[in-house]
Inverse folding.
Protein backbone atom coordinates (compact mmCIF):
# COMPACT_ATOMS: atom_id res chain seq x y z
CA UNK A 1 0.00 0.00 0.00
CA UNK A 2 1.25 3.52 -0.80
CA UNK A 3 0.62 6.54 1.37
CA UNK A 4 -0.25 9.77 -0.50
CA UNK A 5 -1.34 13.08 1.00
CA UNK A 6 -3.14 11.45 3.86
CA UNK A 7 -4.98 8.89 1.70
CA UNK A 8 -4.22 5.21 1.48
CA UNK A 9 -3.82 4.44 -2.24
CA UNK A 10 -3.60 0.87 -3.45
CA UNK A 11 -3.01 -0.28 -7.02
CA UNK A 12 -4.15 -3.88 -7.54
CA UNK A 13 -5.73 -6.25 -10.04
CA UNK A 14 -9.43 -5.62 -10.61
CA UNK A 15 -12.01 -8.10 -9.36
CA UNK A 16 -15.58 -8.58 -10.52
CA UNK A 17 -16.84 -6.62 -7.52
CA UNK A 18 -14.91 -3.56 -8.76
CA UNK A 19 -16.88 -3.28 -12.01
CA UNK A 20 -19.58 -0.97 -10.63
CA UNK A 21 -17.07 1.56 -9.27
CA UNK A 22 -15.07 1.30 -12.50
CA UNK A 23 -18.20 2.15 -14.49
CA UNK A 24 -18.79 5.24 -12.35
CA UNK A 25 -15.17 6.37 -12.66
CA UNK A 26 -15.23 5.76 -16.42
CA UNK A 27 -18.34 7.91 -16.96
CA UNK A 28 -17.22 10.71 -14.64
CA UNK A 29 -13.77 10.84 -16.23
CA UNK A 30 -15.15 10.96 -19.76
CA UNK A 31 -17.77 13.56 -18.90
CA UNK A 32 -15.03 15.81 -17.52
CA UNK A 33 -12.11 15.10 -19.86
CA UNK A 34 -14.03 14.97 -23.14
CA UNK A 35 -16.49 17.85 -22.70
CA UNK A 36 -16.06 19.96 -25.85
CA UNK A 37 -14.30 17.09 -27.64
CA UNK A 38 -17.18 14.65 -27.87
CA UNK A 39 -20.82 15.69 -28.30
CA UNK A 40 -22.38 16.86 -25.01
CA UNK A 41 -25.49 14.79 -25.75
CA UNK A 42 -23.38 11.65 -25.99
CA UNK A 43 -21.48 12.41 -22.78
CA UNK A 44 -24.67 13.28 -20.89
CA UNK A 45 -26.23 9.97 -21.91
CA UNK A 46 -23.34 7.80 -20.71
CA UNK A 47 -24.53 5.37 -18.05
CA UNK A 48 -22.28 3.96 -15.37
CA UNK A 49 -24.27 0.71 -15.47
CA UNK A 50 -23.43 0.19 -19.16
CA UNK A 51 -19.73 0.74 -18.54
CA UNK A 52 -19.90 -1.54 -15.47
CA UNK A 53 -21.30 -4.36 -17.60
CA UNK A 54 -18.52 -3.81 -20.14
CA UNK A 55 -15.77 -3.83 -17.48
CA UNK A 56 -17.25 -6.85 -15.65
CA UNK A 57 -17.11 -8.80 -18.92
CA UNK A 58 -13.50 -7.71 -19.46
CA UNK A 59 -12.52 -8.68 -15.90
CA UNK A 60 -14.00 -12.14 -16.36
CA UNK A 61 -12.13 -12.72 -19.65
CA UNK A 62 -9.39 -15.12 -18.62
CA UNK A 63 -7.38 -14.71 -21.84
CA UNK A 64 -6.61 -11.00 -21.30
CA UNK A 65 -4.18 -9.32 -18.89
CA UNK A 66 -5.82 -8.18 -15.66
CA UNK A 67 -7.15 -4.67 -15.32
CA UNK A 68 -5.60 -2.56 -12.60
CA UNK A 69 -7.65 -0.46 -10.20
CA UNK A 70 -6.67 2.40 -7.93
CA UNK A 71 -8.41 2.36 -4.57
CA UNK A 72 -8.34 5.21 -2.05
CA UNK A 73 -9.03 4.03 1.48
CA UNK A 74 -10.55 0.89 -0.05
CA UNK A 75 -12.82 2.67 -2.59
CA UNK A 76 -12.07 2.12 -6.29
CA UNK A 77 -11.61 5.52 -7.97
CA UNK A 78 -9.91 4.61 -11.24
CA UNK A 79 -8.49 1.91 -13.46
CA UNK A 80 -6.07 1.07 -16.26
CA UNK A 81 -6.55 -1.43 -19.09
CA UNK A 82 -3.67 -2.71 -21.21
CA UNK A 83 -2.46 -5.63 -23.31
CA UNK A 84 -1.24 -6.50 -26.80
CA UNK A 85 -1.40 -3.65 -29.28
CA UNK A 86 -4.73 -3.51 -31.12
CA UNK A 87 -3.55 -3.45 -34.70
CA UNK A 88 -4.39 -4.98 -38.03
CA UNK A 89 -0.64 -5.42 -38.61
CA UNK A 90 1.40 -8.07 -36.80
CA UNK A 91 3.12 -6.37 -33.87
CA UNK A 92 4.93 -7.20 -30.68
CA UNK A 93 4.11 -3.96 -28.87
CA UNK A 94 1.99 -3.56 -25.79
CA UNK A 95 -0.72 -0.93 -25.54
CA UNK A 96 -2.26 1.09 -22.77
CA UNK A 97 -5.92 0.93 -23.83
CA UNK A 98 -7.41 3.16 -21.16
CA UNK A 99 -6.66 4.94 -17.96
CA UNK A 100 -9.59 6.61 -16.24
CA UNK A 101 -9.75 8.29 -12.87
CA UNK A 102 -12.68 9.93 -11.11
CA UNK A 103 -12.14 13.71 -11.56
CA UNK A 104 -12.47 14.21 -7.79
CA UNK A 105 -9.13 12.35 -7.55
CA UNK A 106 -7.27 14.25 -10.28
CA UNK A 107 -4.01 16.01 -9.39
CA UNK A 108 -3.23 13.69 -6.47
CA UNK A 109 -0.69 11.45 -8.21
CA UNK A 110 -3.07 8.50 -8.50
CA UNK A 111 -3.17 8.57 -12.31
CA UNK A 112 0.63 8.60 -12.32
CA UNK A 113 0.67 5.51 -10.07
CA UNK A 114 -1.79 3.72 -12.36
CA UNK A 115 0.28 4.64 -15.42
CA UNK A 116 3.50 3.43 -13.84
CA UNK A 117 1.96 0.14 -12.71
CA UNK A 118 0.39 -0.48 -16.14
CA UNK A 119 3.71 0.31 -17.86
CA UNK A 120 5.54 -2.05 -15.49
CA UNK A 121 2.93 -4.75 -16.17
CA UNK A 122 3.40 -4.41 -19.94
CA UNK A 123 7.15 -4.77 -19.44
CA UNK A 124 6.62 -7.82 -17.19
CA UNK A 125 4.51 -9.44 -19.92
CA UNK A 126 7.59 -9.12 -22.16
CA UNK A 127 6.86 -6.14 -24.38
CA UNK A 128 9.88 -4.03 -25.28
CA UNK A 129 7.78 -1.07 -26.41
CA UNK A 130 4.31 0.24 -25.65
CA UNK A 131 1.94 2.66 -27.30
CA UNK A 132 -1.14 4.57 -26.29
CA UNK A 133 -3.61 6.82 -28.09
CA UNK A 134 -4.73 10.17 -26.70
CA UNK A 135 -7.03 12.96 -27.84
CA UNK A 136 -4.75 15.86 -28.88
CA UNK A 137 -6.71 18.39 -26.81
CA UNK A 138 -6.39 16.30 -23.63
CA UNK A 139 -3.48 18.35 -22.29
CA UNK A 140 -3.76 16.92 -18.77
CA UNK A 141 -3.19 13.37 -20.01
CA UNK A 142 -0.52 14.39 -22.52
CA UNK A 143 1.48 16.20 -19.82
CA UNK A 144 1.28 13.14 -17.60
CA UNK A 145 2.42 10.79 -20.38
CA UNK A 146 5.27 13.07 -21.41
CA UNK A 147 6.45 13.44 -17.80
CA UNK A 148 6.65 9.64 -17.63
CA UNK A 149 8.80 9.31 -20.77
CA UNK A 150 6.13 8.72 -23.41
CA UNK A 151 6.66 10.64 -26.67
CA UNK A 152 4.33 11.54 -29.52
CA UNK A 153 5.52 9.80 -32.69
CA UNK A 154 3.60 11.83 -35.29
CA UNK A 155 1.01 9.16 -36.07
CA UNK A 156 -2.64 10.19 -35.81
CA UNK A 157 -5.97 8.65 -36.64
CA UNK A 158 -9.68 9.12 -36.30
CA UNK A 159 -11.06 6.33 -34.16
CA UNK A 160 -14.53 5.26 -33.20
CA UNK A 161 -14.70 5.01 -29.43
CA UNK A 162 -17.93 3.63 -28.01
CA UNK A 163 -19.79 4.87 -31.07
CA UNK A 164 -18.26 8.35 -31.40
CA UNK A 165 -15.55 9.35 -33.90
CA UNK A 166 -12.67 11.29 -32.35
CA UNK A 167 -9.16 12.28 -33.42
CA UNK A 168 -6.29 10.62 -31.58
CA UNK A 169 -2.52 10.84 -31.61
CA UNK A 170 -0.11 8.03 -30.75
CA UNK A 171 2.51 8.05 -28.01
CA UNK A 172 5.32 5.47 -27.61
CA UNK A 173 7.58 4.39 -24.83
CA UNK A 174 10.45 1.89 -24.83
CA UNK A 175 10.09 -0.58 -21.98
CA UNK A 176 12.80 -2.06 -19.83
CA UNK A 177 13.17 -5.77 -20.41
Amino acid sequence: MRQMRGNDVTIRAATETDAEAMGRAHVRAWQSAYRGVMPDEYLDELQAHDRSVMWRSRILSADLPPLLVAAVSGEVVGFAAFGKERSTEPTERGELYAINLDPAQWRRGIGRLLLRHATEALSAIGYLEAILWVVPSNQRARCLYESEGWTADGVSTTAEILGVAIDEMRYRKPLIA
